[in-house]
Specification:
The structure holds 2 protein chains of 2 kinds. By secondary structure, chain A is mainly α. In chain A, 76% of the residues lie in helices and 0% in strands. In chain B, 41% of the residues are buried. By secondary structure, chain B is an all-alpha fold. Chain B folds into 2 domains: 66 residues, no CATH class; 179 residues, MetI-like fold (Orthogonal Bundle), CATH 1.10.3720. Chain B has a two-stranded antiparallel ribbon with strand order 1-2. Chain B is globular and about 75 Å long. Chains A and B meet through helix 1, helix 4, helix 5, helix 6 and helix 8 of A and helix 1, helix 3, helix 4, helix 5 and helix 6 of B. Chain B: It holds the Pfam family BPD_transp_1.
């Protein structure tokens, strides 16, 4: 049923007001990133009044953002690809295979998911330190190569694929690994896409763990670089905003391109970062 | 959790079953071997970096340890006794509880409001949803940096206030104002997320009930008050628990926005733990703080389980 015009207009008015409040910090970040140093103290417009694009170059030269970026990319690629492989394998075992203690192991993993990172972070840090991995890519990637969230997400999806498809392939002589690779994996593309996006955003935006295990610019990720930039260039807001915007762009792009998968992931799993 | 198909029965019914039991046993063994192969990578990583650390943390919290000594000196419950007597801990707990309460109330209010506005079929719904969701995909560090700048005495917020003749305070230098700013930042970051959750719940509501209520003459406000809000109760509960858990674990936003200041005004449990362990090198005490946080989160989760078990009928 169609609603009266006044109601529809009122609805849009409220939504636009809310959207404006939500979006202002982003506009402000963009505007400031283009201002001259003097302007940052006097101008409060969210519409750019000057266009100092060289601020981006200055910021990029003031800190090794290129290196930070590369490190974040390496970490994200490592984490996303291993999640897609290892989480999928484990999810398949939990969804389709019988083995001793299956439910017990699954429940232990579910319980571990509820434990705050703070509890595990000190011992995990100690293990990584004992392995001599501090300040290496290994410290950033290896401890996160599998995650419970991904296993649950994929398992839910695998369970919903009809058993008959797999049975038919088995009768035709396909091995279990074969059915996994040729039936389950191709049919689960949407679930893999969702997991990839979540894993990427998680890795790209992660802060506490990279903060602990990196000490030098050679392995520091973009988020850590950015937060140390605050201390060093805290008053040069224009450069700081240029750096912040640059660091945010990959997340925003991924979001804009893959929104649908992201929303699907939230509604099926209800998980917050 | 939905239940899993427990056994794959491939060939025996089709092939007539001359030796069904033997074949099945071999099938089982194959299956266990495949399962093991498939599980090893994930379980090894999760075991070493998640499950074992939980157990290890339980022990570490009972020791006095600076993070370097090879030997951890066992001190029993000393760390917990010390926590109970530590004013910094009580301050941190108070700050966290006030923060978590604010985040919960505002998360429900903003999430529900946006979802209700977006619920009807309308032009531009996808566009609005994208805008509201944008903060959720932005890193905490970037979000906190921008807010820190906007709340600077010379920043956007005070300049805006100056336009209407108000002299704005130094937001991040006043104890309760800083906590309010942190709360607002958290809610801003999660509004899209909560709206999406509420939107899913709204769209699952039975339209027939609404049509009946409308025929009976219930106006929009009464339908919202007496039908929608009660029917959404399970989702509200979920949103509240999620908000509680994330606020009890807050760290990134605080670290960048205020570093726990001014004078402990935003010193949430996560910040307190980080400082104790990684800045002061008091790992035993730091782990005890983490464990108390765990107990609080666990308490909240258990309450959620019990409540959602009884309130699930309409999902």
């Amino acid at each position: 049923m169609r609603q009266p015009l006044a109601l529809r207009l009122g609805r849009h008015a409220l939504l636009i007001t809310g959207a404006a409040v939500v979006i202002v910090p982003f506009l402000w970040m963009f505007t400031t990133s283009l201002q001259s140093r003097a302007e940052t103290y006097t101008n409060t417009s969210v519409i750019p009044t000057s266009w100092n694009w060289q601020n981006y170059l200055t910021a990029w030269e003031a800190a090794p953002f290129g290196q930070y970026y590369l490190n974040s990319v390496v970490m994200a690629v490592g984490i996303v690809s291993s999640h897609l492989v290892f989480d999928a394998m484990a999810a398949y075992a939990f969804a389709r295979l019988t083995f001793p203690f299956r439910n017990t192991i699954f429940v232990v993993l579910l319980a571990a998911l509820m434990v705050p990172t703070f509890v595990t972070i000190i011992p995990a840090y100690t293990i990584v330190a004992d392995l001599g991995w501090i300040d290496t890519y290994a410290a950033l990637i290896v401890p996160r190569m599998a995650d419970v969230f991904g296993i649950i997400l994929l398992r839910q999806f695998f369970v919903s694929i009809p058993q008959e498809l797999e049975d038919a392939a088995r009768i035709d002589g396909c091995s279990r690994i074969g059915t996994f690779l040729r039936i389950i994996v191709p049919l689960s593309r949407p679930a893999f896409a969702t997991l990839a996006i979540f894993s990427f955003l998680f890795a790209w935006n992660d802060f506490l763990w990279p903060l602990l295990v990196t000490n030098t610019d050679e392995v520091r990720t973009i988020q850590i670089g950015l937060s140390s930039f605050v201390g060093r260039y805290g008053t040069s807001w224009n450069y700081l905003m240029a750096g912040t915007l640059t660091a945010t762009i990959p997340s925003i792009l991924v979001f804009l391109f893959f929104q649908r998968a992201l929303v699907r992931g939230i509604t099926t799993s209800g998980l917050k970062d | 959790m939905t239940s899993v198909p427990t056994r794959i029965r491939p060939a025996q019914s089709a092939s007539g079953g001359s030796a069904p039991t033997r074949r099945r046993r071999r099938g089982d063994r194959d299956q266990v071997i495949t399962a093991l192969m498939f599980l090893v990578p994930a379980l090894a990583i999760l075991g070493v970096f998640v499950v074992y650390p939980i157990i290890n943390a339980g022990y570490t919290s009972l020791t006095s340890w600076n993070g370097f000594d090879p030997v951890k000196e066992f001190v029993g419950l000393d760390n917990y006794v010390r926590l109970a007597q530590d004013p910094a801990f009580w301050n941190s707990l108070l700050v966290t509880v006030v923060y978590a309460t604010g985040v919960c109330v505002l998360s429900v209010a903003t999430g529900l409001a946006v979802a209700l506005l977006l619920d009807a079929p309308m032009r531009g719904r996808g566009f609005y949803r994208s805008i509201y969701f944008l903060p959720a995909v932005t890193s905490s560090v970037a979000a906190a940096i921008v807010w820190k700048y906007m709340l600077d005495p010379a920043g956007f917020v005070n300049a805006l206030l100056a336009q209407v003749g108000i002299i704005g305070p130094d937001w991040l230098q006043e104890r309760w104002l800083a906590l309010g700013a942190l709360t607002a930042l958290t809610v801003w970051k999660n509004v899209g997320f909560n709206a999406v959750l509420y939107l899913t719940a709204l769209q699952a509501l039975p339209p027939a009930v609404y049509e009946a209520a409308q025929l009976d003459g219930a106006n929009a406000w009464r339908r919202l008050r007496h039908m929608t809000i009660p029917l959404l109760a399970p989702m509200t509960f979920f949103v509240v628990v999620q908000a509680l858990i994330t606020s009890f674990q807050a760290f990134d936003l605080v670290y960048v926005l205020t570093e726990g200041g001014p004078r402990g005004g935003t010193d949430v449990l996560g910040m307190f733990m980080y400082r104790t362990a990684f800045r002061l090198g008091d790992f035993g005490y730091g782990t005890a703080i983490a464990f108390v946080t765990l107990l609080l989160v666990l308490g909240v989760t258990l309450v959620q389980w019990r409540a959602s078990g009884s309130g699930r009928s309409d999902r």
